[in-house]
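Re: weekly structure request thread

Next one in the queue (206 aa):
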Amino acid sequence: MAAPATKRAVVLLSGGLDSATCLAWARGRGFECHTLAVDYGQRHRVELDAARRVATALGAAGHCVVAVDLRAIGARTLTLDCDVLQADGGTRTAAITGGWVALALAVRSIAGKKNVLPNPIRRSVAAVSVGIVDGQVRLDLDYDEDSTAEVDMNVVATGEGELVEVQGTAEGKPFPRSDLDRMLEAALAGLATLRDLQLGAVGGKP
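Done, posted below.
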């Protein structure tokens, strides 16, 4: 039987005191945290910078920014609750990918209603893990692969293939730039497949 995976959490981080306290609480209890900030066109862009600084200062494993046009949603609140029912590596990346699908479906359920535009979501976003195991590039690592990888990396990108986050670690020794390029190529190919699956789940365009 495989050893239990590291406790992981996704924290919605605004850069303010409440969300920073939540992140500090999770980190203090041994959670490996991935933070998520929302770019909704806020007037004070310093909030996004603050969220990034807080994530770094409190030791978040990675930080992702998702762009949403909240003005098109109207006076409504959207809450994404990502529960990983069967954990086998890649829980944080699965939460980001599935979370976007949940958001798109929630927005679609209110689309066309009063004061709501048809398409308030600007773009899709997905995440995947990638690494080098036994000298070979592996995509979407399971627990056994993740625990023995020479390099472990998470990649977040938009549906257009633009990078949102690249977070990687050399587990035993430094790795060459060529390995980074190989992992990015594999990750972006996998993310393109995830994008197609996401769009299929929501019935087409975001």
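The beta strands are 8-12, 32-39, 62-67, 125-133, 136-139, 151-158, 163-170. Residues 137 and 183 are 6 Å apart (CA to CA).
Next request, please.
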